[in-house]
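Sorry to interrupt, but I need a hand with the structure work. It will help me judge whether the discrete encoding reads sensibly. Write everything out right here, beneath this request:
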Amino acid sequence: MKAILEQFSRDENYIRFLNGLKTGRIPASVSGMCDPARPFFIAAALKDSGRKGIVILPEEKEVNNYAAVLRLFFKNVLVYTARDFIFESVTAYSKDWEHERLSVLQKASKGDYDVIVTVPDALMQYTLPVSLLLENSFELERGGRADINDICVRLSGMGYTRADIVEGVGQFSVRGGIIDIFSPNYSYPVRIDLFGDEVDLIGLFDTVSQRRTENLESCEIIPCTEIILTDPAKQAVRREIKSLIDNFKGQEKRLQTLKLELESLERGDKSVYSDKYYSLIYPEKETLFDSVAGALTFVVETSRVKDRAVGFAFTNDGIAESLAEAGMCRLKNCRPYCSAEDFFVKLGKNTVSVDAFATSGVAVGAVSTYRIETRNTLQLTEKSELFVDDIDSFIASSDRILILCSSERSASVMTEFLCDHGVAAYAFTGNLYECRAAVASAAR
């Protein structure tokens, strides 16, 4: 796959783009590339500039495709998802996306990433401020000191639920001097063995067999919720709910819901309705953007990204307004996300739009434009004549052609196949030539 990246560095327009990055001619707009070439272009730009990257796409399915390609070139490629807002009490809901977001946030705050791939609404959603993330995280080391009761109290404040056996993220259990914790930043739960107040052993274990799979010298435990109710925040939410109850003029059923929320808050239950009080809980709001300052951001299909951002804000604005009209919240407090306008402001200057047409770069305020032309062929299926026709058309246009195959043997077979069909094909050794098709193994 490196063969593709090498070709970008030989393209005059790509070299102009790269020089523009290095001399600060950004935001920039890059157009002309076919869809399959775009993640390779992004990989080449990040490799050649030595920058960390954020890739914003209009659809989740594209996120997974881009992440798969980028992982061919980078070790730490993270996927940042959007979570579901919960504005009213529910009996049960999944926090899987929230846990993944916290894992990404923790890595981003430490600069422990190469590329983060995401969608606009995930970036528009406010999240746990980094200062609170660090304040509510703790590290344990072998040979260090720890108190089981203190750890249990702290975990409860970080959003964890105590269980008999740890089976999922956000749970912890205690059995004698053994503490099991499933933190969002690990793929497996952590088991800590204490000898008195000394940390004797730390390791990862399998939830099914309950057997240790890997020993660790230390572990870091992070919060498992994006909404942590500090004492001042809890007091502010309490005052707000009481005020809503005192001034309520709507349906009795709605009033009872508010009273149940207050009772839940007084009991210290984990409040799943906190999103509608977000501005009271976190007066200073942060998004992932606040943890990735300096990263080079690529907005792919800018108009579609913009449409999704606008649609996301419109939908949730409608929900918030309905709740406010029903007397269930105040509109100013029910804003756990930024507007579409603020989203594009937060993109900042380190932004590159990647689109079919250069005009789309207006949305990011592009000060320089580049056109890097690539085309893709049909896949080689049982209708091989169509594939050959595509190659012939590229040759007729004096294009430089590189065909990647899954293995060296496949590349050899492809070269022979093209030659048999009258195409001037050769084994790729590093250079591309006009009117000829180079064939290489993707492993190269």
In short: The first strand starts at residue 28 and ends at 31. The longest helix spans residues 302-325.
